[in-house]
Amino acid sequence: MAAVLSLRTISQLHPNLSSRRVTIKPRAALHGARRMRVPYQLKQEQSRLFHRLPSGLNMEVIVHKRVAEKQSDEEKERPSENPPLDFVHGSYHAAWCWAEHWLPFFSASGYDCYAVSLLGQGESDAPSASVSGTLQTHASDVADFICKKLTLPPVLIGHSFGGLIIQYYIANAKTNQISDKRDLFPKLTGAVLVCSVPPSGNRLTFLIFSSGLVWRYLFPKPIAAFKVTRSLAAKGFQTSLSLCKETFFSATMEDHLVLRYQELMKESSRMPLFDLRKLNASLPVPSVPKSAIELLVLGANDDFIVDAEGLNETGRFYGVSPICVKGVAHDMMLDCLREKGAKAILSWLEDLKREQLR
């Protein structure tokens, strides 16, 4: 039990301190109080750290180191030859969405895993602005963590709007290689875009502004267009179980799991991830030379948010053939057949390692 000592008591116990000024530094508020009223309980072998950003704000990071049970003591001490994996979530999510299933999967496969919660999301601090940040600030926060905490170039894995943040990172990492600012966006081993918002934006931003993808999507699917606007822009998924399931999950997803994730989603985003008007004005993201980075574009056949044309647009933009996983919805890392997407990424990672060893 913690005891609170008065200054008089302290001076009685330690007379030599009586003439000195006693300064007690308070602990960071974030470590003493949860931001989410429905906290996410970490799994065994997972830990939570708070990375101090240059802004002075703390960014939550859930860590799951590679499993080394079957390795010798010498092998356990040896640095992993596999690149670390750094996961970036999308809107209405936080680091917990990766910690639930994919962090245990990839750590068991020999990879050190780190999942960040962007500012204003999950257990991270919130900035004083009305929104969490911009493409630039979010990418810079991820870069700062990589620069200061990771010793090997990681593979960045981004979902939905997190994929768009990674695309901005990639564009700036290539640009910075010929400037004095290269350390702002450290080198990557590769990147994976999971059900990512395409370089030009997605139906959410354009449904609001009535241009671009909305016309392609609205006319053939007016009911679906209305639903996605109601679900995301109006946050209808937070109160409707059926709409939450249709937006993020497969029809076979069990209701009790949808309810659990629905509560975590509501608590994850205390403020909007972006100002969509400003985001729309900054798109498309800058292009990069073909084959400038090892990239996997991964989509879901039953994705309610990013349609097939959005997936193909991203593939064309980077000159790669996208992989579409059947039987999986937008939240691929949480959905019923979540292991299908994880195995596709693991296969790509293994191919990448073989290529680097040649």
UniProtKB/TrEMBL annotation:
GO biological process: lipid homeostasis; phosphatidic acid biosynthetic process
A molecular function GO annotation: carboxylic ester hydrolase activity
Every AB hydrolase-1 domain range: 87-334
Superkingdom as given in the UniProt entry: Eukaryota
InterPro entries per the UniProt record, alphabetical: AB_hydrolase_1, AB_hydrolase_fold
Name used for this protein in its record: AB hydrolase-1 domain-containing protein
Organism whose genome encodes this protein: Malus domestica
